[in-house]
Amino acid sequence: MTKHNCFGEFLIGCNYFASNKGVHMWKYWDSDVIDKDFAALRQYGIDYVRIFPIWSDFQPLTPHLRGESIFEIRHGEEPFPDTPAGRAGVDGEMLSRLERTIELAAKHRLKVMLELVTRWMSGRNFVPDMFWDKKFLSDPAVLKWQIRMIRLLVNTCKKYENVVAWGLGNENNCAANCESRDEAWLWTSIISDAIRSCDQTRPIISGMHGLAVNQTGGHWFIKDQAENNDILTIHPYPYYTPHCHRDRLTGIRTILHAEAESVLYSDIGKKPCLTQELGVLGPMIGNDDQSTKYLESVLWSLWTCGDLGALWWMAFDCDTFDTPYDWQATERELGFMDKNRNPKPMLLAMRDFKQSVNSLPAVYQCLPKRRADVACLLSFYQESWTVAYSAYVMAKQTGFDILFNAPEDPLPEADFYMLPSIKGVNCISRRKWEALLSRVKEGASLYISTANAFISSFSSITGLEVIEREIRTNPFRIPCDGKVLIIPAIKDGTEEPYRYYFKNKSAEVILSEEDGAPVLARNRYGKGWVYTLMISLEYFASYTQGVFDDGVNDLSCLYKLVFRSAVEKRLLIKDMHLNNVAVSEHLVDEETAVCVIINHGHDNVQGSLRLSGRIKNLSVIRGNAARTPDNRLQFSLRANDAAIVEVKF
Known about the structure:
649 residues, alpha/beta, eight-stranded parallel beta sheet, seven-stranded mixed beta sheet, 18 helices, globular
């Protein structure tokens, strides 16, 4: 079995600042507080801490002017000492405090992930006085001093065995005024190379939040971070990520946010992903009880999707008059411990999850990579996260898993492809389109959803000939599964939705609007099938509240009509219900797989899954489940819990 976790275990940890002063721990140093903090964290099962040397504290560069130019740089009024720290512009006392922090972590058997350029933290920029008006990413002087500090920190701290990874810094893409993708790439490469020049034995972690797949997502790209780093990161806060705050905290869309983002990053970047910051941003989003239910589900889903681990933000609450806590209400109640080191239920849930995973057979504590059934081809000029997110949720509700593919990448091999919510005239290159159609002719299936895209050879592929079209103003009203789906006509970015008038040449119409206009059809193309949905379904779903819940507007019923053949190839086959139950499959070897069933719902659930005829033997590793005489897996799961089975085939 190939494991996909470079740490050899699923990480359980937190982001750490001292409980007495938070981000200002380095200035208001108290080693006794840190010692007690680490003891408390270890007592409740925490293994990893992410630590942040604040840039302005560690490199307090003050320019001294003669005339209008800099004559000398000092630490305040004090000249730099002739020491390695002094020559790097680093305060030697701060360096000693960092070393002592690492030593205290080792005392309590905590492993350290060390960030190296912590400029942005909790809504404030901590920049040395000398650089307050300089360009963080490109100014030569800024880069020179960053590199000097990095070399010193890495060379000093690499002797500590409990330092397990280096980080570029905290969310530097969120605070830096970046003018181009090239500028972002170059800064990332310079910083990563500076680390590697001192230590090539530990992985380098990106530390960014909210990266792009294509041109619509800004200047910081998943692929560029993957090119220059060993581990990608997500910080999946529902409040700060588009579309993730529309439903309740314990709704399946919100719960699957972290998993969907992690899979997107690792698929596009082809590097492992770490959930480096996890949290709900305090009690205004959800109380401790609901936050704990949310966390329980998220931990199971991250473990199954191949994420490296989960670090809670933050270790301790901090309510002081210091900035950023004086400014930011969201920063005061983020801990899974209060400032007196009393644990909240979220910390206990992380401890219990760790114990559950550790109780599994050792060979299954880190799962093999999940099986992906459908290749999701993201396209140019679409809102990639918007489309990918809802596609992922509806796929999990339907009973299959997605492999994401970047628009410029070669076509992956698959039996089923999807082009979700494509739009405009530049959605896919001709070379990739021709390769895709060749695969369909050979027997693959293809799903296309659109309300406004230009598609080459549309008529021969879909079996529908466009007579004409007009901008749509009225909503879709689609009878489906005993109810009427109502989907408003909404603009996809700058693209208007259209109503199409068709001549049916060879298509099998699966669903029509109430007035008889085809909306979902399939057509034989060579040996394969092409499914065409004339709605930007995934785009609409992300912008709409409540569409992933059981009820009148449950949009996953459309996926269940299209992707049934993909579901039927699974080992554990979902029927047309159990929307809040997710199933993943992990191939151990040619004859063995591990399957995980997670109840993401609010309530306990009793249900069953149909078993593939290929399964010879089945054994339950965790949970209440059993094989029935009619070849089904009957299970009972409490809310936010998981069952695990091993199958032989």
